Amino acid sequence: MRRKSKSSVNKDAWLATYGDMITLILVFFVLLYSMSSIDQEKYKLLVKAFTADPKTLEEISMEESELITENLEAAINAEEKIELENIQDLEDLYKYLRDYVEKNNLQHSVYVAITDNLVYVRFASSLFFEADRAVLKEGGRTILDHVGMALSVVEPSIKNIRIDGHTAESAPGDESVNDRDLSTERANEVLKFLEDKYIVDPAILYAVGYGRYRPVAANDTETNRAKNRRVEILVSKTDTMQDTLDQIYEAEKRNAQGQEQ
Asked: If one looks up domain 84-246 in CATH, what number appears?
């Protein structure tokens, strides 16, 4: 009688299943880790692709809008700063003055704007002058030093620099100072400071005193009157009025020479 042979049993076969399980667990944790560091934008797109829930889509859309706004603001803030020696034209002048205002937290006292032909800078009078006085304060001189250095760099490419002085209508019962005289004196004080220290050609400088007659706010409160008390510097690369005057001057010179002959 033939004896049955014993079947061989692989006692280590379970290791293959165990190894497969460990491999799957490892892959699972790798996926979890990759999801934890996934790009936020790609993850949102993935969620959007697998959901039709209007509320979820709306929330993602709002977050995307906020992100776009944040990126735009970051790009604006990261805009290249203009150094003093790199100023070449009015746009550079504008950027330099704007950066100076922001760096020194002067936004509430100084306003800078630009057009095709003009850089406009408005200063609250309190930065430069004591009440009812036309003598530059030390802090005002410091600010004008920075402005003057920038103007000196751009001077070869500009036509003129105009300084406008403005006062406010006096509070009821207070008429101790002539506002027209005060505004003119303040404008001239700024002009002389720039002429003495920074501007080579004095002919491009002139000052105007408007007194209280060009307000930017109603003179009904002290806050509004403070807005009207201001000094403005206008830097332009063309001046049609001055060009016309130059033509008149030249014509007069030719007439005079003709009469002498």
From this structure: 3.30.1330.60
- The domain spans of the chain are 21-77, 84-246
Query: What's the longest Cα–Cα distance across the chain?
Result: 156
Q: Report the b/e string of 58-90 with b at 16+ CB within 10 A.
A: eebeeeeeeeeeeeeeeeeeeeeebeeeebeeb
Which residues make Cβ contacts (< 8 Å) with residue 113, sequence separation at least 6? Answer: 94, 119, 120
User: What does DSSP assign to residue 220?
Assistant: T
Count of Cβ atoms closer than 10 Å to residue 91 Cβ: 12
Which structure tokens are listed for 144? 């004008």
Q: What angle do CA 180, 183, 186 make, to 5 degrees?
A: 145
pLDDT digits (tens, 9 = 90+) for 80-120: 577 888 899 999 999 999 999 999 999 999 999 999 899 99
Cα gap 127→121, rounded to integer Å: 13
Q: List the alpha helices (DSSP H) in the chain.
A: 13-36, 40-50, 54-77, 90-103, 125-128, 138-154, 179-197, 222-228, 240-260
Q: pLDDT band at residue 76, thresholds of 50, 70 and 90?
A: very low
